[in-house]
Amino acid sequence: MMNATTTARETGRDGFAMVTALLVVLVLSVLAVGAAWLATSEKKTTAAEATHLRSVFSADAGGEAAINFVRVSNQPPQILDFGTMAVRNEPTTVLEGTQQFSYDVNFTGKRPKPGWGVDYLDYDYQIGSQGQASRQGQSGVQVVVSRLYKEGY
């Protein structure tokens, strides 16, 4: 029988507390490393999403600039390149910092506008806009627009 003066060596529990403490420290260390990895991966994902959004907004700004070009023209824009039917090629326009856009406007055809008489034609244009934010973020927007013009005006 054991009495109150029995030592740890006699019970076979020599170093049990130290092994338990080391296991607890190991588990807590693994949890800390996992939390740090999760935080850094979330930060990278957030930065990539922000870059993507800036590039999409840049491409949208280019699309809006191209639509505005067609909208404010008093007469159908002249075709600059008959191979691509391009009526406007806008080189890179810097918006802010690394954000920039460029766009192309291509003539696709003209057709009579029903109910407007033979002098009025719908001119159709295809717009391609490319937006960029930093080196990684690139997006594109394609839009088809129509504009009513009076032929021979």
What do these coordinates show?
By secondary structure, this protein is α+β, with helices and mostly antiparallel strands. The chain has a domain at 54-150. The protein is 39% helix and 35% strand. Strand 3 and strand 4 (137-150) form a beta hairpin. The mean pLDDT is 88.
Strand-and-helix sequence, N→C?
HHEEEE
Q: Averaging pLDDT over every residue, what do you get?
A: 88
Strand order of the largest sheet: 1-2-3-4
| First-residue to last-residue Cα separation | 117 Å
Our estimate of the beta-strand percent is: 25-35%
The coarse silhouette is: rod-shaped
Low-confidence stretches: none
- The Cα radius of gyration reads 34 Å
Helix content: 25-40%
Structural class: alpha+beta
Number of strands: 4
Number of helices: 2
Describe the largest sheet: 4 strands, antiparallel
Please write out the topology.
Layout: H1 8-11, H2 16-71, E1 86-96, E2 99-112, E3 120-133, E4 137-150
Antiparallel strand pairs: 1-2, 2-3, 3-4
